[in-house]
């Protein structure tokens, strides 16, 4: 069984500094007190449709548990959740109905889930049975999206291999669609390399069944890959249905990503499902970084 974390480990994409514990906010603007207390003091008045990929707080989840994590992000003001933990019919070790209820009891919505499996022809039946269970589980949780967060690509990968993945995604997408769920693929930057003169990302976009496979664009990784997220959104409006709002560390901190232009194009495309993802933290404090990202977007006039 693979979850997103296993995928990322395998891909060696987890950057240094991932395993940290929440700590005092002593280095953050002179504030004192625990991050949790700091957050708890803030009123939940935000009305903006701000989502969070819970992977951003993976270590907090590990330490404090999912219930405390959900309470924390609800207090911050986040509205929409994207999960990053699925195993054998359980979401964060909870029955799907239970997870859904916990999210909704806090005034939030469980919109999207990162789940996935690498593919091999030999294990086709086993892998598709795995998806049947994953789809059934997330149907019970009422999720709109099921997103495969990663795929194995290396120097030996051929276009035939990619085509096999496109067919795999199309098969999973058809199953998901039949269950009322949108299946999608989430990119990193390795998709912006070429195989036999074809950009991997373009090959995927061109060769999946466009009716049943959509894409969750991680704007940071698109830009890291040397491509323009806005151009992709403009050129393929029907293929992108969800977005990862991500930066080098906290959202807006690098100044290198034009989030205003990205949001304008997202809204022009009619995309309202997007999730903040923070993977690296300036002060090794995931809670502070996730709060800082919320504050940046909540104050930004270009975010609805
Ligand atoms: Mg992402």
Question: Any key phrases for this structure?
Answer:
12 helices; 15% strand; globular; single chain; two-stranded antiparallel ribbon; alpha/beta; 8-stranded parallel barrel; binds magnesium ion; 12 strands; disordered N terminus; 304 residues
Characterization of this structure:
Helix content is 41%, strand content 15%. The strands form three sheets. An eight-stranded parallel β-barrel has the order 1-2-5-6-7-10-11-12. A two-stranded antiparallel sheet has the order 3-4. α10 (229-235) runs parallel beside α11 (259-269). Residues 1-5, 7-33 and 35-41 have low confidence and may be disordered. The protein has 304 residues and is α/β, with parallel strands linked by helices. The protein has helices at 4-10, 35-40, 58-64, 66-76, 96-105, 124-140, 159-178, 200-207, 219-224, 229-235, 259-269, 286-299; strands at residues 51-53, 80-83, 86-87, 90-91, 109-114, 145-148, 182-186, 194-195, 198-199, 213-218, 240-246, 274-277. Magnesium ion (MG) is lined by residues 186, 218, 244, 246, 277.
Write the layout of secondary structure elements.
Elements: H1 4-10, H2 35-40, E1 51-53, H3 58-64, H4 66-76, E2 80-83, E3 86-87, E4 90-91, H5 96-105, E5 109-114, H6 124-140, E6 145-148, H7 159-178, E7 182-186, E8 194-195, E9 198-199, H8 200-207, E10 213-218, H9 219-224, H10 229-235, E11 240-246, H11 259-269, E12 274-277, H12 286-299
Parallel strand pairs: 1-2, 1-12, 2-5, 5-6, 6-7, 7-10, 10-11, 11-12
Antiparallel strand pairs: 3-4, 8-9
